[in-house]
């Protein structure tokens, strides 16, 4: 049987709350592609001169150029991020003199705030994925175009085909796409109601005074605000249907995640 | 006059879209304390064996123990994060054999998706802060308690005093607080409508077919869901007022950020 999960290694094994750890391709990939923002971390060029890693917030998606219509749960995928060619992250392979730069990418969605009797038992509902891999510049033009469409449609489905495409040559030159070949990955998912210690639950003075439960949280998309130069009077259907359905989906997830398991 | 901003150094200077860079204490600190999730990155223990940095999502706040009622715009603040004493990040100083571990902390809020005529000009409205500093374990008991209250009230204001406190000795032992002494920091803020190239704006075939504008985005808090063991029938006022006011504040910010500047 083919693998359906990332291998558990020292680097990606969830140790605290092991029961929250998930390694299957489907879960890891769906978290990355559902998270609006990815955080990308890289090492300093010269740790003796400057010892700090750096994190930058980015937009990106996972996919498989060699088989774009793949089942995202069937195999490891590559992660693509893009930016202006002059930006710090996109210049990283050149700046560090490496074809492949080791990076870490985190995708996190907060799903709720869990309020327990005591601060110690407060926690959050969330879905998070952490990937480690090597970032390199995509030089193949077909792969680059495909990745740009993947990332754009990751923001708003079908947006690529509904905007002015293909990009001009100048636009393509000004944009760099980095592909992260994933070497390890894992996800961590927490849901349900807060847990409390038996001793607190038996203390009437405590239970009668402290409200416990979950505040569900989701990222809400507001009604589309046309720009001052917009000439299309009606919000197109692909966009109007998407943001409303997406809100319902997200709100439902957060609400369901708040329930006792 | 006393400094009111972090010094611009190589590490924290915003280079792409310099006009979005902000260094003042007030902006950096308010982004960190408004973001629900912080991403914390650290270096590998032995880069020759494992070359990857790692990012973990965390909860935390900035504050000043020596002067808790400070004006957050008046001086640099320390960043506090907490976790179970056995967790990877909390064990980091011990595991790396360092009293002070170099870390990077990122706080990001997505405020909108900007849809331009061409994918190249798509972008996002956001507020982000990136801090570099040294993380060390807080050993002073008074500072540790104060930091735990700061972090808990950062999740939901006034929650600390409205839960079962003080923590037991076992709870305090099981919890570690890391303090990050910030050595450099900057913020990047983008708002407004999408920008388009003159050539596209003059092309009637393009402008008549592509809707442009902003989808405002904010993190929405849902109605409190009581846990199965909750005994307080009515959601307390400090909580009920907060989540509703917070939603209004966040929604208003995202909506206002979508307007032409």
From TrEMBL, chains A, B:
Pfam families xrefs: Pyridox_ox_2
InterPro entries listed in its UniProt record: Pyridox_Oxase-rel, Split_barrel_FMN-bd
Signal peptide: none
Entry superkingdom: Eukaryota
UniProt cross-references to Gene3D superfamilies, sorted A to Z: Electron Transport, Fmn-binding Protein, Chain A
Identification of the protein by name: Flavin-nucleotide-binding protein
């Amino acid at each position: 049987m083919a693998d359906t999960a990332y291998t558990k290694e020292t680097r990606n094994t969830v140790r605290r709350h092991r029961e929250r750890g998930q390694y299957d391709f489907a879960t890891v990939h769906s978290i990355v592609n559902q998270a609006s923002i990815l955080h990308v971390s890289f090492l300093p060029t010269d740790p003796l001169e400057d010892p700090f890693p750096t994190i930058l917030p980015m937009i990106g998606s996972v996919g498989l150029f060699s088989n774009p219509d793949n089942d995202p749960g069937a195999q490891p995928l590559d992660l693509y991020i893009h930016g202006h060619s002059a930006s710090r992250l996109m210049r990283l392979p050149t700046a560090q003199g490496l074809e492949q730069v080791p990076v870490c990418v985190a995708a996190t969605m907060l799903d709720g705030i869990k309020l327990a009797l005591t601060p110690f038992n407060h926690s959050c509902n969330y879905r998070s994925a952490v990937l480690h891999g090597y970032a390199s510049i995509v030089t193949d033009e077909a792969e680059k175009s495909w990745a740009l469409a993947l990332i754009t449609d990751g923001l708003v489905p079908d947006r690529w085909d509904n905007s002015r495409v293909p990009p001009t040559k100048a636009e393509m030159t000004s944009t760099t796409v980095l592909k992260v070949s994933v070497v390890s990955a894992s996800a961590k998912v927490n849901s349900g109601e807060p847990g409390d210690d038996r001793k607190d639950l038996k203390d009437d003075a405590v239970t009668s005074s402290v409200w416990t439960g979950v505040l569900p949280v989701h990222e809400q998309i507001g009604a589309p605000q046309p720009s001052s130069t917009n000439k299309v009077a009606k919000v197109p259907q692909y966009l109007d249907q998407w943001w409303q359905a997406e809100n319902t989906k997200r709100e439902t997830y957060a609400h369901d995640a708040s329930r006792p398991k």
